[in-house]
Amino acid sequence: MYKKILDYVKEKPSVYLPNTIPFWDDEHISQHMLDAHLNPEFDGASRRYAFIRQSVQWINGLCRDTNNKELLDLGCGPGIYAELFHERGFRVTGIDFSKRSINYAEQNAKKLHKKIAYYYRNYLNICYENQFDVVTLIYCDFGVLNPKARYELLCKVRHALKPGGLLILDGFTEAQLAVWRENETIQYCHSGFWSPMPYACLQRNMYYQVPKVFLEQYVIITEDECKCYNMWNQIFCKDALLEELKQAGFCQAEFFDDVCGNPFTGTANTICVVAS
Questions:
Q1: Helix-strand-coil percent breakdown of the chain, rounded to 5?
Q2: What is the pLDDT, as a whole number, of residue 66?
Q3: What is the mean pLDDT of residues 243-255?
Q4: Of 64, 82, 115, 216, which is most buried by a Cβ count within 10 Å?
C-alpha cells in the first residue's frame, strides 16, 4: 500500500496516463455525479440549467427547421440537453458511458413520454454512416481525450453526419488557467464524493506546457486500498482546433466563445466550433 502511494506521487505522471480503475460506473461516484448533473445551479458535471437552455436555443437556431432532424448527443449524461433538443423537434440519440446516467435518462424520458434513444456505451466506439444532421459534444469533453482518440472520434463523427451536417463541440482555452491553479492539497473525509468510507484525498493539479495539457490527479486512500484518478484536459486555440478538424476531413469551421454562440474574441475560457 505504501509503495503504491509513493509510486503515484513521487513524480509527474506521463501525459495522458490513464486512471488505475474505471471511473464512470463506480457505484458510489456515479451517484454523486448524477446528483451533480441534476443540480440546476451547479457548474459541475453539467453546466447550470440557465446556460444549457441558452445553448440549446442557439443550436436550435443554427439548424433552422429542426422538425425530425436527427441529433446525436455524445456524453449525454442523464439527458438534460437531449430532452430540450427533443422538445424543439429533433429526433435525439444520446450516448454515455455511465450506466446510472443512462438508466436515469431512459426512465425520465419514459415518464415524460419523450421518445429518445439512449445507449450505454463508449462514444469512441460509435459506428454510424450518413445518419445525423447534428452531433454535439458539449462541456469540453473533447479535451479529455488524447490526440489519437480525438482524431479517431472526429473521423467517426464525420462519417456519422449527413452531407452539410454540423458538429458542435467546445474546449478550454489558456484563459482557463487563470481560474485553474497548479497546487497540491490533502484532505480527510469521513465520507464524500470519492468513497462512502473514510478516506484521504491527495489532489495534485499539474500543467504540461507541451502539449498544453492540464491534469487534475486524485489519489484516494482508504483503509483497504489506494486508487488514482487522472483527469486530463487539453488547452485549445483556434488554429490548433482547426488543424485537428481539417486532418479528420472537416472543410468548414466557425468559431465562438462558447456554446451559447457568443462571438469569438479569443479571450474567453472556452472555445466553441461549429464544423461541417
A1: 35, 30, 40
A2: 79
A3: 98
A4: 82
Rounded to whole angstroms, the Cα distance separating 136 from 170 reads 9
13-35 pLDDT tens trace: 999 998 877 788 899 999 999 99
Give me the pLDDT at residue 207, please: 97
Q: Give the per-residue pLDDT at 109.
A: 97
Q: Characterize the bridge pairing of strands 270-275 and 199-208.
A: unpaired
Residue type, 21: I
* CB-CB neighbours of 51 under 10 Å: 15
Q: What is the dihedral of CA 87, 55, 118, 113, to 10 degrees?
A: -20
38-173+236-275 CATH, one of 3.40.50.2300, 3.30.70.260, 3.40.50.300, 3.40.50.150: 3.40.50.150
Residue 239's pLDDT band, with cuts at 50, 70 and 90, is: very high
Distance CA 109, CA 260 (A): 25
pLDDT tens digit sequence for 104-121: 999 999 999 999 999 999
Cis preceding-peptide flag for 40 (omega within 30 of 0): no
* 8 or 55, which is more confident: 55
Which residue in 57, 65, 109 sits closest to 83, CA to CA?
109
In the chain, CATH 3.40.50.150 covers 38-173+236-275
Alpha-helical regions (H) of the chain: 2-9, 27-37, 49-62, 80-87, 99-111, 147-160, 238-247
Summary count for the chain: helices (H), strands (E): 7, 11
